[in-house]
Amino acid sequence: MKVCFTLLLGAALGLPAQAQLRLPALPGVSRLPGVVDRMPPLPDLVASTARLAEQRVASVRELLLRHRDLVEPDPAGEPMRRGELVLVSPGDAVLAAASSLGLVKLRDEDWPELGLREVVLRVPAGLDTAEALTRLHAAQPELQADFNHLYTLAGDVASGPAAGVGPPRGGLRVGLVDGGVDRRHMALRQAGGASFGCEGRALPSEHGTAVASLLVGRERGFAGAAPKAELFAADVYCDRPDGGSAEDVVRALAWMARERVAVVNVSLVGPANRLLERGVAALVGRGHLLVAAVGNDGPAAPPLYPAAYAGVVGVTGVNPSRRVLPEAAQGPQVLLAAPGADMAVARSGGGYGVARGTSFAAPLVAGLLAAELREPDPAAASAAIERVAAKAVDLGAPGRDPVYGRGLVAEALRVVPEQLQARQQR
Questions:
Q1: pLDDT of 47 strictly over 70
Q2: Is the whole model's pTM more than 0.70, yes or no?
Q3: What is the pLDDT of residue 61?
Q4: Catalytic residue at 48?
Q5: Does the annotation mark 207 as catalytic?
Q6: What mean pLDDT comes out for the span 322-335?
Q7: Which of the following is catalytic: 37, 207, 235, 297?
Q8: Binning pLDDT at 50, 70 and 90, where does residue 59 land?
Q9: Is 178 a catalytic residue?
Q10: CATH architecture, domain 152-425
Q11: CA dist., res. 102 & res. 122, Å (int)
Q12: Residue 58 binned pLDDT confidence (cut-offs 50, 70, 90)
């Protein structure tokens, strides 16, 4: 299963903003802005800060050291598939230049739904991946190429009772790009739709199951934002340490375009990437709405992607007191806010848990938008956003602001499911 990283809440100790994301030195890791996304709901954040820091460092080391045969850091410290470069719609001259440098073609795939072609190259032994990219750019300055970055999850699930979401809405279709979904869970058994990825294997994950339940879950005492919707779920991790790559995510977006799923939730975060940027732009340009968590790196961190790409509906999270989560990213990428703390969610394997993070705010917004947009259409997509945003509660500075965007929506979906609470306490 893809490793989730834990946020060090320097804000809880009143540290300066620039110190909130500082990590102890790690071999091969110079900086990791954009790979933070695990935040357990803890009663005392100040007392737990040291433990969270240790867990974050351990998670980073596990991914980048234990799986060094599959994963390596890019020059900024972001995780990526070892020895791979991704070319976006390359011409013959680019491929010839790559071959002259000793780069070997691994995969060549067309995504006509997005008007894209990708070619993945293997960097030969003895040549540094970053140096290979530099040499290729020098040979072909107009080249559209990047590393095959990995994208991480934007929240965490723990056991225990919590507040939930409801009430039911009408029949819909909604997409999810995440980890695997446990469709055997009682809250998800009635969700139709289709699954994509992992060569047809079902590999449920905690994060994917939790987000799916907030989208389409339905059981006595529990309801997601769109409980009668068909769920089109793409697993981009497939239990691989190097899962969740830019290539995996864009392949999933191409499937969503092919299936004409108008609204797609992506609760994943990571660095800017040329392939991902082109894939997102193509999907949005065709009239789909991409709803993405802004991430949990803290208010002073650089923007995370895909939420920060143009046309994406970036979603932040608030607690039950309508205050923004202290770990939530801030900036112009924030368009809307939704509940994102003490959320009741389905757990893979059965039962319910507590979720916190911008991961779990995003599907509430996606559910609202899915009710407004049944088919991909650029004009209709813009109108759907306006209808939802018009109902937002302005919590920050008047108008759109970098903390809450245009305001809080989906608050009415939060209820206290007494039957769920009772089952949790048995």
A1: no
A2: yes
A3: 66
A4: no
A5: yes
A6: 95
A7: 207
A8: low
A9: yes
A10: 3-Layer(aba) Sandwich (3.40)
A11: 9
A12: low
Pick the CATH number of 76-149 from 3.10.20, 1.20.120, 1.10.287, 3.30.70: 3.30.70
146, 178, 248, 342: the active-site residue: 178
Given a cut of 60, is residue 49 above it in pLDDT? Answer: no
Task: Quickly state the pLDDT bin for 310 (edges 50, 70, 90).
Answer: very high
| Tokens read off for 110 | 């067309």
| Domain range list for the chain | 10-71, 76-149, 152-425
Tokens 């813009």, residue located: 382
Q: pLDDT tens for residues 202-248?
A: 999 999 999 999 999 998 888 899 998 899 999 999 999 999 999 99
Q: Which amino acid is at 211?
A: V
